[in-house]
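Many groups now describe folds with learned vocabularies. In that spirit, our science desk offers one protein's residues alongside their backbone shape tokens.
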Amino acid sequence: MTKSCLLRGATPLATLLMLGVAHAAFAQTAAPASGSPAGADTVSEVVVTAQKRTERLQDVPVAVSALSGAQLSNQHVAKVDDITSFVPSLQATSPDGEGTPIFALRGVSMSDYSLSQDGPVATYFDETYASAFALLGIRMFDLQRVEVLKGPQGTLYGKNTTGGAINIISNKPTFTPSGDFSVGYGNYNHWQASGDVNGPLLGDKLAGRFAFTAEKANGWMSDALPGKPKLDALDGYAGRLSLLARPTSNSEFTLRIAGSWQNPINYGIKGEPLDSTGIGGPVYNLFGLQGYVPPANLGPDTVQNAETARRLAETWSASLHGDIQLPHHLALTTITAWDWGKLFIPEASDGAPNQALQISYFARARQFAQDLRLTSNFTGPFDFMLGAYFNREEIYNATMNTLYADIDVNGDGVINAQDCLAGFPVACRVGNSFTQIKTSTAVYTDMKYRLTDHITLRGGLRYTRDDGRLGGFESQFQDVQGNFLGYLVQPSDVAAEGANRFKRSNVSGKAGVDYKTSSGQLFYLSFSRGYRGDAFNAQGFFSPAEVTVAKPETLSDIEGGAKLQLFDRRMTLNLSAYHYDYQNMQFINVTPTLLQQLVNLPKATVDGGELELTARPTHALSLHLGLGVLSSEIQEGQLLGQDLKGHQLANAPKINTTIGADWTIADLSAGTLALHGDSVITSKQYFDVFNGEAQAQKAYGLVNGNLGFRSSDHRWGVSLWAKNLLDQHYYNSIIKVQSFNLNYMHVGTPRMFGANLDYSF
């Protein structure tokens, strides 16, 4: 089963105009003098490759947030969903546990948590798109930076997406010998170690780098049932070998081979009954049994889960990235990548000690991708990038639902095949399996023309061809011991429904203009259109009619912004405002009778904006503020007979604020003592489009901190850190499962703290 405007009334364009007027009022005094050098107390420059060129962040006319490797390390960012603490308008839910986040960016997310689905916010590792949850693994170690691009992507990236892109970029080998090692210990018996060694292997022609990470911790969630272990544990390892070759003076190739393995005790589910009959109550009552009602004294981090197995995640990947300088100011980039992974998630989906609903998810995925780009660096006003992309993903997906395995339907004292046959689907196991193959082929281009010294025109187009095939789809039912009893759906049924294939072509693109003042202030305005391809329904179990193909999503974005450097570059202020026209959002429709279809909601809109401010008022103090404001509204659509017009999108809080500060407390001859603190504050958000109050998370804030000492030679350091310092209780996912009379709830991570010691050479 699936678990299942900046100012109100002001348009984004009007808001942008107000920002421009405000800038005009203070630009003459705030902007640095032309040609004045950056002082010691200026905001550090951030270099990104968001547009597939190495550029300063302040010169990129798109909404992008960037975190350097030093920031990620100092702030103990260990999981990809940790970056939500630093990027406004970015949220993550984890209905399938840590390591498999569902990102929501500016309110654009997905409601189907099947392991075979691709989300609207793409995740890239070293410019390679990770198409499936099973391919994510452990990647957040030895990183150069993380970039988060907001809005539709397609003219610069291999994969076309509606919501945005998260680029995770690892460190490349260098020809300077070096190494870094770190060990740490924290509460819940949390052990962590990571490191890297780097240097030349063959003169100035070949360099290598090996990096690793390992983490192990006891679970933080207690299971009150006798003999049960702690849940939400950590147990994972990962390594990456990188080789950098420079065979000629105008070519460079980077080979990366990586693997990861995780086998912790799985997460716990908090179950909350929808009424007094308890979880599973309406069915249990039919057989003279009671549904589960949690004890009143059950703590916020305590559950009573019958299923406490270990999850398994394993990944392997290899990629070859080549850059070749060609004559006539041209460069060729080629990226070839192969990924393989498997993921097994067993869960007590009812969050109860009885056995109303237990689900196991399994996926095995492999992917091949090739991206080829030709980029110009002409001396004249015109530059272009021309790309070709191919991606093939193959996913084997299997889901098994165990339903009311503790009900003796015929009352003979034994729960076996006779009970399933008499009470179907009570006392049964119902599962499906299939192989999904998708290929995506595209050509894309991005161009710019410098019209004057201040005005640049930009544009791009993309043609995409998507093909999908669903092979061997079958659904069967078994008794609770796993003995086969019969088929519910067979491959021939799916073929008869016409839901085993799709073919689709799409043309999307972007056009924009930006204006740069003599003092370096940047203003931009653009229109872009994104596309997210067709999707198969992985949650068909009882009828061939459930096996549907959802149409593609499209999103049109009108966006404007400004990137300002103020007060002699002691402050950077980045602003953006946008209007989204979001059509055919893919959504899983779960009926009270357990039937499920993947459908499209016709139309929604999102209006909003962001502010990111970094300031350095003194040499010892740096401040950061991020603010995301949005208003989402479904314009047209129905689910379960309910008109959703006027409802908010899921995972779309109206206000999201990030605050951070770095303070050098003392700069001594022996070293530097520094304090870092950050907080993320999120307003109320709904976890589904029905906007039920019981499926909402009220406003909450998380506070994190780090106190560290770094030696004067930068060779070693020690730090004390804490996350969720105030031990805020919150949920990162709540799903109403009407069929089993419960709210399925994932509890957010409680307070974590520890100490780290690191050494570099």
User: Anything to note?
Assistant: The radius of gyration is 26 Å. The CA atoms of residues 463 and 507 lie 5 Å apart. The first strand starts at residue 47 and ends at 48. Residues 12-760 form a domain with the Maltoporin; Chain A fold (CATH 2.40.170.20).
